[in-house]
Amino acid sequence: MKITRCLWIVLFVFAYKTSDAQSMAYKTLLKGVYDKEFPLVNIDDQDVLEAAIFLDTREREEYEVSHLQNARWVGFNEFDLKRVKDLDKDKPIVVYCSIGARSQEIGKKLKEAGFLRVYNLYGGIFHWVNEELPVYTNGQSTQKVHAYNRAWGIWLSKGEKVY
Q: What's the short name of a Pfam family annotated to this entry (predicted)?
């Protein structure tokens, strides 16, 4: 069911290549991906974002292309709670990936491990960059963003796509 919905969304975006149509399609896609019970944080929620520790749940090669400033790589396929054992379980944690599917899964693992304030970044790094917020590599601002693959890369409308 979700795959069929996603296919229709992609077809809609290709048929109507306007930013409004793409934005509406992206929001619809995200509704189908996110668990309603898992908390999201939006880019305008500065109280949470300014206090948070950011965890990048993408694969290492994606992180190395660019990431949010001061984000710690924890990965998805290779995720291990040992990577976060030094973190304060009471501090806010924001997990993110390309759009938020993988990060939600890692966020659930963190909650199960006793982390109290875990949030999934709404729209992931794609939304972050589409809203013209900065990403970094080696401490330097960059326009490059790993677009995961060409099918998912359609949701990244700003920045320079890297595959």
A: Rhodanese
In tens, the pLDDT along 133-148 reads 999 999 999 999 999 9
Of 67, 27, 55, 43, the residue nearest 162 (C-alpha): 67
Asked about 97 being catalytic, the answer comes back as yes
The domains of the chain are located at 1-33, 37-162
Distance CA 8, CA 134 (A): 31
Q: Residue 4: helix, strand or coil by DSSP?
A: helix
Burial code of 71-85, b = ≥16 C-beta within 10 A, e = fewer?
bbbbbbeebeeeebe
To 10 degrees, what angle do helices 2-15 and 19-33 make?
A: 170
Single pTM value for the model: 0.88
Domain 37-162 fold: Oxidized Rhodanese; domain 1 (3.40.250)
Instruction: Supply φ then ψ for residue 39, to 5 degrees.
Output: -70, 140
